[in-house]
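HUMAN: Forgive my ignorance: could you write out one protein's sequence and backbone structure tokens?

ASSISTANT:
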Amino acid sequence: MMDFYMTPGSCSTGIHILLEELDLLFSAHVLSLPAGDQNTPEYLAVNPKGTIPALVLDDGTVLSEFQAIAWWLALAHPKAGLLPEDITKQAEVLEVMSYAVSTIHMQGFTRIFTTERYISREQDRAVVEAQGRQLIAKGFNIVAQKLEQSPSGYVTDAFSIADAALFYVEFWATRTDIKLPDACQKHFDKMCTRPVVQRVLMEEGYRLS
């Protein structure tokens, strides 16, 4: 059985969705980031980075970083179709997934959720948060252009690992009063119709309405 280290409502929600979509057997370990669980000796022994998510495979290999875990899940279970067969579309999936995580999340939302990392004076807080919202808005507008070209409403022809990554930042937007572009809102709504997404959010203590 794999061990999955997660925090409800965080980026790990995207990986949680993928694990449930694949119907994999795993043991969930919930970490409280505000309580500092990610910095305990016990967790650092698992993941020295002190980040979530982390996935410990059956053979003891530890995977961290959203993109690495998602990529492994897709390649380890090819019949699930979490990656398109076409290599160019695979690259498009990787592009959107990486952009959602590295830019919308790590450059945008971190300025809202962990503003203190970016300021040396309290009076700069509002400026940094505004910068975060600008980066988020720009990021979603770029992704929206991609979604507008997809008849399926997903990043490519069908649900993929990129959609799980995009969903968690869209979810954050809905929780922080950030308006999504129409194409992103439609993507979020489409994701919310998936039974696994509904179940994961309920398991993590969230309601869709």
